[in-house]
Design a protein that fits this description.
The chain is mainly alpha-helical. It has 13 helices and six strands. A hairpin with a 5-residue loop joins strand 5 and strand 6. It starts with a helix and ends with a helix.
């Protein structure tokens, strides 16, 4: 009987050693290929291990299951999209899923973009989950409960990073709060005697500045012109607002007929600021709108290279316009 017990112990010990050897062998084998893998919410450890084995990420599913259980991490794997790099060890693969070290996608809101341009990027982005009705800008505003009638200019231009499955609503809400935070901070430190009663008006002015010039060093000078024209009850007469109001009817070159077309955004016909921003302004444009340059300039004309000539009188402005036309 004793001989049988010794034999049984020997066999069990050998089996255990073989099992441990096999476990450590499979644990130490690095992955052969780089692989993107999505752990769905609620998936079992067994299913994940089987999937990773079938896709060539790990050599043996049981090795992952055993490692997860003996380390107490079996119930801590997080859902998400992961990139398992070539030569990753089993421990590194498990640790990545436990930490939730998922792939981060990104989308940039460009400075000077319109909401239509942003909407096109969001609706086409493969990693963003679409939860909103994108049938109209007004519908978006209503769903996000922003309390305004149009989303133009409300989202801060920046590069945003997010995991797969991040919702379009969360993305827009985040960009909206970033814009509100920035505008509010600059508003608290604004120059005195501005003709703006609220931050939204300053945001409108900033969007005009953003679209009017490609030269950031001119931002505050243009801001000064806008402020002085508003204070003198002069028409702003800025082309970008007219272009925005024309929408799809804009034909790449403003005509006299375009300037005569009556839209709420035609600042050649209507006094004051347009009803909404016309684009997403940058931080520099927002700062300039609330810190305009001092001076007497009331006019500016493009030089054809992105810069402008600024003048204080209509006579000087007409000469600058004539000089520009002679260069064409």
């Amino acid at each position: 009987m004793a001989k049988y017990c010794i034999l049984l112990i020997f066999l069990l010990t050998s089996a255990l050693l073989i099992a441990c050897g096999a476990f450590f062998y499979y644990q130490s084998i690095p992955s052969m290929t780089e692989k993107t893998y999505i752990v769905e919410r609620g998936e079992s450890l067994q299913h994940i291990a089987k999937d990773l084995h079938e896709q060539g990420v790990i050599q043996h599913p049981m090795a992952l299951i055993v490692l997860a259980r003996i380390t107490g991490k079996a119930n801590h794997i997080q859902s998400g999209e992961y990139l398992f790099e070539k030569n990753s060890t089993l421990e590194e693969i498990l640790e990545k899923m436990v930490k939730g070290d998922v792939i981060m996608h990104h989308l940039r809101i460009g400075e000077g973009w319109t909401f239509a341009e942003l909407a096109a990027q969001i609706t086409l982005h493969p990693a963003l989950e679409k939860t909103l009705d994108w049938s109209s800008p007004e519908t978006i505003i209503h769903q996000l409960k922003l309390g305004l009638h149009k989303p133009e200019g409300l989202f801060y231009p920046d590069t945003y990073y997010f995991p797969r499955g991040y919702t379009d609503a969360a993305f827009l809400t985040r960009a909206y709060h970033d814009m509100q935070k920035l505008v509010s901070a600059v508003w608290e430190d604004r120059a005195p005697d501005l003709p703006y009663k609220m931050t939204y008006e300053a945001l409108i002015a900033a969007s005009i500045i953003e679209k009017e010039t490609a030269v950031p060093t001119e931002y505050q000078e243009i801001a000064g012109v806008i402020v002085r024209r508003l204070q003198k009850h002069m028409l702003l007469q800025v082309d970008p607002t007219v272009v925005y109001g024309l929408g799809a009817d804009y034909s790449q070159a403003l005509t006299h007929a375009d300037l005569a077309q009556d839209t709420p955004y035609n600042t050649y016909l209507h006094h004051g600021l347009p009803p909404t921003p016309i684009a997403f302004p940058s931080q520099a444009a927002i700062y300039a709108a609330m810190h305009p340059a001092n001076g007497t300039t009331l006019y500016f004309v493009a030089n054809g290279d992105g810069s402008h000539t600024f003048t204080s009188t209509l006579e000087a402005h007409n000469k600058a316009v004539a000089a520009y036309r002679n260069r064409e």
